[in-house]
Amino acid sequence: MRTFSDVKGLPIYEQTTGKAVGTIADIWFTSHGTVKGFVAERRGLFGRRRYLPLSAVQSLQNDRVIIRDAGSFQPFPSLDGGHSLFGERGIAGSLVVAADGTTIGLLDDVYFDGQLGKIDGYEISEGFFSDLTEGKKRMEAAPFTAKEGVVTVETMR
């Protein structure tokens, strides 16, 4: 299991040609913990961000991502369909609170399983000094709602 930070910036290669066609920029997932895909920075003259469905990923390795071909990139799905960590619907840095209003910390990253396509947990920061002395905390994944910089976790495990 890895955090998204381990994957961010990895080069994306076509399986058919072996050519580098982009880099991983963000992750796209639902509030129920299903990883739908990635946001990729495309290479080329008109490089732009495109959506890469998880189903198009042939292999997610430590140093690269292999996809079938560059035709796997798609326009973004409806923004209502998910969240990212850093983009337009980004929730990194959001305050995480329990359903009862208890403050948990700030969402820093997500742990995910690329093979199963699910978020396994959240990396929570309790502040710079706490992170230095105690380290960041891991919280089990749970359904959430995100609104105006606050992520409310529906259930605690």
List keywords for this structure.
SH3 type barrels, seven-stranded mixed beta sheet, 2 domains, single chain, 157 residues, elongated
Summarize the structure.
By secondary structure, the protein is mainly beta. The chain folds into two domains: about 1-85, SH3 type barrels, CATH 2.30.30.240; about 95-155, SH3 type barrels, CATH 2.30.30. It has one helix and 14 strands.
Describe this structure as you would to a colleague.
The protein has 157 residues and is mainly β. The chain folds into 2 domains: 2-84, Roll (SH3 type barrels), CATH 2.30.30; 95-153, SH3 type barrels (Roll). Strands 1, 9, 10, 11, 12, 13 and 14 form a 7-stranded mixed β-sheet that branches. Strands 2, 3, 4, 5, 6, 7 and 8 form a 7-stranded mixed β-sheet that branches. The two termini are 18 Å apart. The protein is built from 1 helix and 14 strands. The longest helix is centred in the C-terminal third of the chain and has 7 residues, at 128-134. InterPro entries: PRC-brl_dom, PRC_barrel-like_sf. This is Photosystem reaction center subunit H. Residues 3-69, 93-137 form the PRC-barrel domain.
Overall pLDDT score:
89
> pLDDT below 50 for ≥5 consecutive residues: which ranges?
none
| Helical proportion, percent range | under 10%
CATH class of the largest domain: Mainly Beta
Compute the gyration radius: what is it? 16 Å
**Architecture per CATH nomenclature, i.e. the level-2 architecture of the largest domain:** Roll
Q: Strand-residue fraction?
A: over 45%
Tally the beta strands: 14
Largest sheet: 7 strands, mixed
Protein name: Photosystem reaction center subunit H
Domain PRC-barrel: 3-69, 93-137
Pfam family, one: PRC
InterPro entries: PRC-brl_dom, PRC_barrel-like_sf
